[in-house]
Each structure stands twice: as structure tokens, then as C-alpha cells.
Design goal:
Elements: H1 4-16, E1 23-26, H2 30-42, E2 48-54, H3 66-73, E3 76-80, H4 100-107, H5 111-127, H6 131-140, H7 155-161, H8 171-180, H9 190-193
Parallel strand pairs: 1-2, 2-3
Helix pairs in contact: 2-3, 5-8
């Protein structure tokens, strides 16, 4: 790996040439975010503005360190795989004919995952919203999240997904989602040390 002093020098040149305006990172740990920002600050350079990270209801480890660091450093977080590779799409328990991915996922579900998806589907049905949109709305309820990376395959999916920005999940629904898909319990080290 190149030292951050060199990396920031290269990025400064790109910004000065008008080839880049802002710099973001992907899959950085909290310590890497902090170090990158410290090195940028030494150079009086803006530094990172965002961190792209895998984060969804079933992958909540970023809550331990990455999200708190991003918040502290003023970075927006752009989650990738916001539907867990389709796991939170609403199609895994009842795969649509011809959906090989959903069928493959369904065949590998553990009993715990089946229960989680059933509880999630019931909650979403009570809300009158699709599972995919509730999963996206959950992400958007977190102020450190800028916007999830979505991957609609059709115009219909895109139009349906846009509904997620209009959904405001009340605290009791957020608490229920935490029950269904427990996170680590907060930021580190408090989540596990005390």
C-alpha cells in the first residue's frame, strides 16, 4: 500500500486539474478512515467525504466502528448491498418462478433466517410496504447514511424503490426491526465491553 502522504498528493493533483471534486473510500475500517483524514488535515486538504460500505439489516457490524467514525469525521456513508444480495427483497421465502437467485437463497435458509424473514414480511405487511422498501427506509432513517446503492433491474423496480425515500419509520418499528435483525448493540467498545 502507498503511504497516505503520496495518495493525498495524487488526489490533490486530480482536484487541481479539475478531474475530481471529492474523494470517497470503500470498505475502509474506522482506523483507516481516521488515519486518512488525519493525513489530509496535515496537508490542509479536504480529505474523504464519504465511505462506501456493506451495510443492511442483516450486516450490521459497521455499527461497531465504521458508522461512529464516519459520523465523527463528518463523512456520509453509502451502503452497498442494502438488500443483502436479495435476502431482504421479499422474494426469498416465496421465490418468483424463474428467479434462480431467490430459489438458491431459499434452499440455503437456516431455521433462524426463515423466522427472521417471516417476522420481517409480517411487519412490512402491517405497514403496507414492501420488504425491499422497508429495508431501504431503515437505512435512510440513520442520519449518517447518504444514500444506499440500489440495483434495480427494471424501470418498475426503480419506480417502486423510489417509494423508500417517502417512508418514515416510527421508533416502535425501528425497535421491532432491531428485534428481528439484532445489531451489535451500539458502538465499540461499549457494545461488548460494558
Amino acid at each position: 500500500h502507498a503511504p497516505w502522504e503520496e495518495i493525498w498528493g495524487a488526489f490533490e493533483a486530480l482536484v487541481n486539474q479539475g478531474k475530481a471534486y471529492y474523494i470517497g473510500s470503500s470498505n475502509f475500517g474506522a482506523r483507516h478512515l481516521a488515519y486518512a483524514q488525519a493525513m489530509a488535515e496535515k496537508r490542509n486538504f479536504l480529505g474523504l467525504v464519504s465511505e462506501q460500505h456493506k451495510y443492511n439489516l442483516t450486516c450490521r457490524l459497521p455499527e461497531l466502528e465504521v458508522l461512529p467514525a464516519a459520523k465523527e469525521l463528518g463523512l456520509g456513508v453509502i451502503p452497498w448491498s442494502p438488500l443483502g444480495g436479495g435476502f431482504l427483497s421479499g422474494h426469498v421465502l416465496n421465490p418468483v418462478a424463474g428467479s434462480e437467485r431467490a430459489s438458491a437463497m431459499a434452499s440455503k435458509l437456516t431455521p433462524q433466517q426463515q423466522e427472521q424473514l417471516k417476522a420481517f414480511a409480517a411487519l412490512c405487511a402491517d405497514l403496507g410496504e414492501s420488504e425491499a422498501n422497508v429495508a431501504l427506509a431503515w437505512l435512510l432513517a440513520n442520519p449518517v447514511i447518504t444514500a444506499p446503492i440500489i440495483g434495480p433491474r427494471t424501470l418498475e423496480q426503480l419506480e417502486d424503490t423510489l417509494r423508500a425515500v417517502e417512508i418514515e419509520l416510527p421508533e416502535d418499528v425501528l425497535a421491532k426491526l432491531d428485534e428481528i435483525f439484532p445489531g451489535p448493540g451500539g458502538a465499540a467498545p461499549e457494545a461488548y465491553a460494558w
